[in-house]
Every structure is written in structure tokens, then in C-alpha cells.
Amino acid sequence: MLAIHSNKPALWIMAAKWEMEDRLSSESARQLFLRALRFHPQSAKLYQEYFRMELMHAEKLGKEKEEFEKAKMDLGNLDYPEEILTGELARIIYKNSINIIKGAEFHVSLLSIAQLFDFAKNLQKEIYDDLQALHTDDPLTWDYVARRELEIQPQPGEEPPATKQARALEMGRREERCCAVYEEAVQTLPTEAMWKCYISFCLERFAKKTSNRSLRGQRLERTMTAFKKAQELKLLPEFLYKQWIELLRQHDFLKEALQVAVAGIELFRDSVMMWQMKLQVLIDSKSPDIASLFKEGFASLKPQVCLPLWISWAEWCEGAKSQEDTEAIYKKAILAVTGADSVTLKEKYLDWAYRSGGNKKARAVFKSLQESRPFSVAFFRKVIQFEKEQESCKMANLREYYERALREFGSVDSDLWMDYIKEELNHPLGRPENCGQIYWRAMKMLQGESAEAFVAKHAMHQAGHL
To answer: So where does this one cross the membrane (predicted)?
Structure first.
């Protein structure tokens, strides 16, 4: 297998794992990794797994030796080389690999592996010190160093906090230490990427459940402050503006949310998402001029990005205005939105019609749209499903929907043909004698694999009926 597929690092790793775990041969596993690295000298995954294997081997030998010594057994000619037991072989792999594969991400991945092995404290410290020395200009390094503060264990002799209150207090102190590192990081490395790491940490901590109100309050305040500072420095990316506004909305800080949304629109003038956020805040605030603000949004944005805004407007209108107003918006949107985006809009319009006026309304909307290409198969499937949900499901309507759908998708969708045949067979007013003709039409229209799939499905269906 390796001779034929030597270009696949994952197979070399599988083979080495098998040698190590099933055949208990660390030497064979080592040789496989060395051969694999000759084929793939730049493979981070190979170096990571080779490094892990040497650490696992060292740990296993160490435990074995300990057991023998405890039992006061003679080690005889059993070999426990010191360089393996101390993790020296793993250290050599680490040193070689960071010279070949640069960057903090790879460095951090090796440190994370080393931290799984308690005996390798010296190696962990060396990797950690190197990370700080070699990659001070990488946000990942700072992120890693800051997050380590959360994991620092109490000193020997120190009692771990016993009460809930004390544990919350201790967690608050740890988070403060993390933030002190992040504050230093954003001073040293004032970039968007560094602020993103800092704010992501704050959001993660805020999302953690706690019954301690003081800790929760600290987390919220810290998050808001980080957002504000990044915004003042113009280092807040668009997606974080969105998260900030959502956080403010959750806590009913609607005035502040609106200020942030307005600032976001100033920065990201072509962003439909920022307009959506602003309008959402205004809807939450029960603002009286929502309709004129939607119009302002359309005037400010390019028509080709406006689909989400049309959908938001229609959804707001459905909850706040009359059926006629909502339909008027859908009709305007259908005229304004063209191309692939209009497919989604037509499906939404059809869903709304069924929700608000039942099958009769949905059928009227279908009729009005049935020549407005492009469509999706889902559009036709919806209207077919609506008809089938009626007590008096009309076969004539189903035929009309299937025929219209097949005009669009008859050359590619074998399922549509198959379902049409089943409908004629199973509906009380179906005409089973039409099935042969539908079958031959399908065979003429379907191309390549679709035709083969149709023949197979049809044959299975026939077999099921025999």
C-alpha cells in the first residue's frame, strides 16, 4: 500500500501507529516516520505525529522501568536508554521540525502535544520559551500565553478554593491575569488580528455559565471595554461589530447598539449586514420610521447585495403591518432582485402566501411567478406539498405543477419524474394509464447518469408492486 500510495502522509501515520500499537515495535514505527519524511519533508502532520510517538514511547518505557524497580526485579539486559526516557529523541524532532516548518501555529501545536505528558516538563518549558522568543510578532503566541493564565494550578501547599464564592473569586483573578497579558499584547501588536483574539477570549468567558453575579458583571464590562477600545482604534472587523451589537441588544442597551450600528455603517458603507443590524435595533426600539429607514438602506447599497434587506423588510412587515402591505413588499422585491438571488425570494414569497392565505393564496402566487425564471426544484416541491396537504387534493393541480417543474428540470431531476408517476398511480383521481407515456417522456429528456438513476428507481418501484 505504501509503495503505491507513498504520496499520502495519513497512510504513513496509520502504518507507524500499527507498528507501535499492534506490533509493539517502536523501532519500526520510527523507521516508517523517517521514510515518510523523506517523501514529505514539509508535512506538519507527520512531524506532529512522529513527535507524539516518541513521547508516548518514552512515557511507556518510563512506566515499565518504574514497575520493574518497584517489584525489585533484575532489569538484566533490558534496555532503557536515558535519551529516550528523558524525551531527548522527541526534543531532536522538535528542534528539526521548527527549522523546517515556520510559524507560531505549528509551534503551538507541538507545545499542546508535549503538555499531554507529565514527564516532559523541561521540554514543555523549552518549547514555551522558544515560542515567546521566536514568535513575538504573531497574535497566536500572545493568545496562547494569555490563555495559559487560566490553567495555572495552585502552588504546592496552597489550598484550592472550597466554596462557590471563593472559586468564582479565583476565576475572576485568573481572567484578570489573562486580560493583563492581552492588554500588553494589543500595545505591542496593535493589529486587527490581535484585537480579534482578545475580544474572542472575552466573549468566550462571558458565554460561560456562572451563578455569581459579580463575575458575570465583570465579564460583561470587560467585553464591552475591549469592543470600545478596538473601535476607537478602528481595528474592529465587520463581523465583530455584528457580535457587539447583538450583545448590546441582548442586554437592552438599545441606544448604545444604535450608536455602534451607525458607526459600523460609516466604516463599512457597502455592508448589507450592518444595515440589517441597524434596522434590527430600530425594530427592537419600536422606532416609528422603519419603512423609510429600509428605503434609506436600499438607496445606500448596491442592488445586487440587497436580498437580505428585502427579506428582513418583508418579515418585519408580516409582524407589524397588514397582509396587503407585506405582499406589496414581496412584489417590489421580485422586481428588484434578479438572477440567482431571486430564487430564494420566490421560495420565501410562496411560504408567506401559504402561511397567510392558505393554499388558495399560494396557488395565486405560484401562477403569478410561474414564468419568472430562474427557479429552484424546492419552489415546485413546496407548491406540490401545499396541494397534497389539502383535504380535497386536486390531481389536476398536481399535474399542472409537475408539468411546469419538468419544463425546468426534466432533463436533470429523475426524482421529479418518479414522483409524478407515483402520483398518477396512488392518487384517487390519478390515471395509471398515463404512467407509460410519462416513463417514455422521461427517458427522452433525462441525460446520462440521471437517465440511469431513473431506470434503476423505476425498476425498484415496479418490483415493489409485483
So the answer is: none
Are the beta carbons of 188 and 171 closer than 8 angstroms? no
The answer to whether residue 328 sits within a structural domain is no
Instruction: Retrieve residue 164's grid coordinates.
Output: 462557590
Domain co-membership, 175 together with 124 = no
Please indicate, yes or no, whether residues 177 and 111 belong to a single structural domain of this protein: no
CA distance 427 to 271: 50
- CA dihedral sign, ordered 151, 152, 156, 157: negative
* b/e burial code for range 426-450 (CB count within 10 A of at least 16 → b): ebeebeeeebeebbeebeebbeeeb
Locate 392 and state its grid cell: 380535497
What pLDDT, on a 0 to 100 scale, did the predictor assign at position 362?
96
Contact of 382 with 351, CB cutoff 8 Å: yes
Regarding whether 224 and 202 lie in a shared domain, the answer is yes
Question: 89-100 pLDDT, tens per residue?
Answer: 999 999 999 999
Helix ranges (DSSP H) in 370-434 = 377-388, 395-409, 414-426
pLDDT of residue 194: 97
CA–CA gap between residue 260 and residue 436 (Å, rounded): 64
Helix (H) or strand (E) holding 450: helix 448-465
Give the relative orientation of helices 290-300 and 272-284 as an angle to the nearest 10 degrees. Answer: 170
- Among 179, 211, 236, residue at a domain's last position: 236
Question: In three state form, how does the secondary structure of 28-50 look?
Answer: HHHHHHHHHHHHCCCCHHHHHHH
Pure H helices in 153-270: 164-188, 192-207, 213-232, 238-250, 254-267
User: Do the domain assignments include residue 390?
Assistant: yes
Q: Is residue 36 part of a domain?
A: yes
Burial class (CB in 10 A: 0-12, 13-18, 19+), 229: middle
Give the orientation angle of helix 104-114 with respect to helix 139-151, to 10 degrees: 20
CB 218 within 8 A of CB 226: no
pLDDT value at residue 466: 45
Q: How far apart are CA 282 and CA 272, in angstroms?
A: 15
Asked if residue 100 and residue 182 are part of one domain, the reply reads no
Do the Cβ atoms of 353 and 364 come closer than 8 Å?
Answer: yes
What one-character DSSP code corresponds to residue 432?
A: G
CB-CB contact of 182 with 198 (8 Å): yes
Same domain? 91 vs 3? yes
Query: Do 131 and 144 reside in the same domain of the chain?
Result: no
Instruction: Return the DSSP state at 190.
Output: -
Per the domain annotation, does 282 fall within a domain? Answer: no
Could you identify the residue written with the cell 416609528? 288
Domain span at residue 68 reads: 1-135
